[in-house]
Structure formats: structure tokens, C-alpha cells
Amino acid sequence: MKSIVVDVHAHFTPKLIAERYAANAAKFPAVKLVKSDKGVTMQFAGIPPTRPIMPGLSDLAARQAWMDKTGIDHQVIGGWLDSFGYELPAVEGAAWSRYLNDCMYEQFRDERRFSALATVPLQDGKLAAEVLGEAMERGFAGVMVGTLPRGEHGGNLDDP
After folding, report:
1. Stated pTM of the model
2. Nearest C-alpha neighbor of 11 from the set 47, 50, 69, 59
3. Distance between CA 77 and CA 141 in Å, rounded?
4. For burial by CB atoms within 10 Å, which of 10, 11, 35, 94 has the most?
């Protein structure tokens, strides 16, 4: 049996997030995507914008070339934590998580070198479990979560 090298910690931001944003923005009115000469930033619920999305986070061809060059056969790939929107109200956060998951699924559903991870709205445990169930039914490998379930509003993952 041939050994394979698996990278179990990788992040990706599908270009579809920005490309389809205008058609979906009404589902999450507290999310703003801003395009500038520095790239695309996201802003959630009135907090300062994220860092611009780094080009390498969205370039699948360059990622695959890098994997070939470095001998990585497979990646377990999750979203960019800055994009998870834990600051959003719970229902809006669930809509945003579903949107991110739709974009990630569309990007990776036919890619055999990647196992995609979903995101869930940690601001509400019941909704997080619901979105996780949906993601697992679609074939996601699991879920990636941040350790700050209220994002910029503080708190740790283990807070009651």
C-alpha cells in the first residue's frame, strides 16, 4: 500500500462568496463585502472590516501546484476564520454559515484531493447542530470552528 501525505490544517475562501454575494445579501443584512484595490474585505454587525482576503486563499490551481511541489497528496480544508461571522445575530449567522457552506461545497464537491469542512453558527448551539447535520448529509468531512464563538464580542469556546 502506498503512503500518502495529508495536510490536515488548511484554509480556503471560495471566490463564489464574493461572486454570489449580491444575489444572496438580503439573507444576511449585517454582512458587508467591500471590494477595493487591496482585495475583498468582510464586515459583520458593525465591527471593523476583516483583513483583505489573501489571493492565495482562493486560488485552487496555485494550491494544487504547491501541493504537487511539496509532495502533499490530500488536504483537509476549512474556511477562513475571519469569514465565519460569529458576531452576527443567531438566525442571520445560520444563514451566513449555510451560504459559506454552499460556496465551499460547490468549490470542492468534485475535487478528490480535498476533504472540505463546513462552518456552523457557534452563537447558537441548536442552530449550529442543525447546520452541522445539513453539512454532514451533503458529504462534508466535518466542521471547522473558531475558539471565539462570539467573535469580536469576546468569550471562549468553553464558556457556559
Report:
1. 0.93
2. 59
3. 9
4. 94
